[in-house]
Amino acid sequence: MTLILFIAILITVPYICGCAFKCFLRDMAIDVIHTYTVGFVFMWLTFSVIQVPLVLKDAPITVITIMYPVLIALFIVVAAAKEGIKRFRHELTRHLSFKRQDILVYVMTAVIFIAIIAQIYVAAGIQESGVYNNEYTIARAVQIYSDGTLGRRVNAFTGADISGISFDMIMSSQAVFIAMISYIFRQPPLIAANLYIPVIIIPMIYMSYYMAARVLFRNKNNRCIFLIVIAMLSLYSNYSLHPAESIWNLLFINCWNPNVIACHILIPLGTYYALTAINAEFRWDRAAVQLRDEKSDKLYRSVIKNRRIFLCKRTYLVMTAAALCFTTAYGIIMGTILYACIFMYYYVSNYGGVDINIKRYAAVIMPAVIYLVLLIITSAVSHTAGSISGFWQDYTTCYKEIFSNDFKNNMYLLIFISAVMYQYLKKESSGKAACVYIPMLVFGIGVINPLIYMLFRLFAPSYCKVIFWILPINAIIAYTVVDMINAVCNTDTNRNINIAGVCLITVISIISFMPRYGYNFAWEGAATPDKISDETRQICDIIDNDGQDKNVIALNELCSQIRLCDTDIKLYYYTDNQYACNDDKDMYAYLNQDEPYLQGIVQNAKREGYNYIIFRKGILDPNWSSVQYHIWPAGSTENYDVYSIGYF
User: Mind telling me which residue stretches traverse the membrane in this protein (predicted)?
Assistant: First the structure.
């Protein structure tokens, strides 16, 4: 029942917010999907902004749970009052008219939504065996929900107290959003992340790519085909089946990851707004030039109209760029590079003609500039910035690994290059700018640029090996496929049949991919939606029933799920030599041996004040453990033994 209520809110509120926002801008020329995406970005930005001071103040989660809906409702009421109730109601309904001649389109669209719902259900019901290892978003969401406060100074991976709060923790709003959804609908964060968040993200991914296709194709059939091709590439391609580092597999798996919102929703929408803003500016300047030579009401109205369109598109672009700042460091850096390359290309290509005014787009770059300045200052103050020693060696090694890991063993890079060459060599190609020149600028300025690599190495080292994500590889291949289809057959004829065919292909591709989740990724089904195994629950129950302080030393394979199951537990290690308390990493080596040096482990555990230790089953004889090592069996599961550490 709560999920049905959540879906109802999800369908209506972003659309109403989009209508309210466009009423303030006087933008009357956007359709349902555009209105919905504008509302989504506005709501995401609003939430992200108000959570910053609340996180800094360590406010209770109830504050943002009340404040956020109230602000959204107040915004809608103000917009309705500004426009008038009748006018606002007209804006809500004028794009929702029903046309009997389009009945087949409506039916097939409903079938697509049913298939997408099935896809969401399958995506929510599976997991990779180590999906939560090093996943900060989920760990922090669980911590917030458990503590009831937004900014508690605790390492979400281990439970250890920390002295300060990181810049990423302040700016990244995804974890707080998941915790808020959990609190409102009274569902654990893991269920919210795996069941509720996909209901938001997956449809938004389809809509964002559809909006991006609007600047590539005027024909709706071509947009739908483009959407299908890019979805199928993301589902089936070798590139998407590289589970370790490819963003595309996150499209439908773990879609609560902040990079999915950045790379699959905000950046495509920002690209659409950037291109449409430039087109509106060109029309505005041309009309202004003609108006100076010839005075007429028609040209005057054209100037006013195109100026208003430009201002609206620029506002949407600035809002999207600002939303990127509160999503992920990778998104804001690479998104800004992409927008800068778009502006640079059109400035150079139109030099001497109708130039674009770079000053008009300064506001687009300002969120990234402010973000980077704050990031540099906080990194310098907290001494968390990386080192530049050995830079060139790391730079060359990184790109060798990118080629070897992501492209060497499949044909994806060759297919991408072939698509670019096809568009370049084609005499009459409307996609040369989007598929050839702009990607070349992005590749030179963003992907292989040592300065960009240094920026990531200093402040976001985990993204160094995925810099190439900024290249719109799947989008370019999909555009080329649609272009080839147009060369063979005309998709403008017999609209209903074409739409029906496209919808049928969509449904077949989605349904046929479902079994491949388990086949391609070795994903394991879970008995419950929160993905916590029964054995992990048993271990936490053993520790809880024993009654001592929950300070635990555990194998790295257990640590992530133990913390997600019980956030009161404090762990000595999280995973793979990372997040070790006091930088004492020797115990990790002892603990993961088949015959560990138990005396050293026990002494270290006592020194650090830990009360429990978990071994694989059978490593230690419970009958002799108390005599030899002063540890007592507290309980056992199918694969693990839990011991209580004695203090004398």
Answer: 6-25, 37-55, 61-82, 103-124, 190-212, 224-241, 247-275, 315-348, 360-381, 437-459, 466-485, 497-514
Q: Per-residue pLDDT tens for 291-336?
A: 777 777 777 788 888 888 888 888 999 999 888 888 877 778 878 8
Determine the Cα–Cα distance for residues 248 and 471; give it in Å rounded to an integer.
12
Burial (CB count <10 Å: 0-12, 13-18, 19+), residue 385: middle
Dihedral pair phi/psi, residue 520, rounded to 5°: -85, -30
Token pair belonging to 526: 């879970």
Q: Are 453 and 398 in contact (CB under 8 A)?
A: yes
Tokens of 26: 């006087």
pLDDT digits (tens, 9 = 90+) for 578-620: 433 344 444 444 454 444 556 666 666 777 778 888 887 877 7
Residue 408 gets the label, from left (phi > 0), alpha (psi -120 to 50) or beta, of alpha
Half-sphere exposure of 287 (CA within 13 A, CB side): 18
Give the total residue count for the chain.
648
Are the CB atoms for 457 and 333 separated by under 8 Å? no
Tell me how far the alpha carbon of residue 265 is from its chain's centroid. Answer: 8
Phi, psi of 449 (to 5 degrees): -70, 120
602 in Cβ contact with 614 (< 8 Å): no
Which residue spans within 105-193 are E strands per DSSP? 126-127
Can you tell me the distance from the alpha carbon of 499 to that of 491, in angstroms, rounded to the nearest whole number?
Answer: 10
Sign of CA dihedral 386, 390, 392, 395: negative
Torsion of CA 154, 158, 159, 164, to 10 degrees: -20
Q: How far apart are CA 353 and CA 494, in angstroms?
A: 40
- DSSP notation for 506-520: HHHHHHHHHHHHHHH
Helix or strand holding residue 119 (H, E) = helix 103-124
Return the number of other C-beta atoms located less than 10 Å from residue 605's C-beta: 23
> pLDDT above 90 covers what percent of the chain?
5
Dump pLDDT digits (tens) for 535-584. 888 999 999 888 888 888 887 777 777 888 888 888 875 343 443 334 44
Tokens of 562: 């133990």
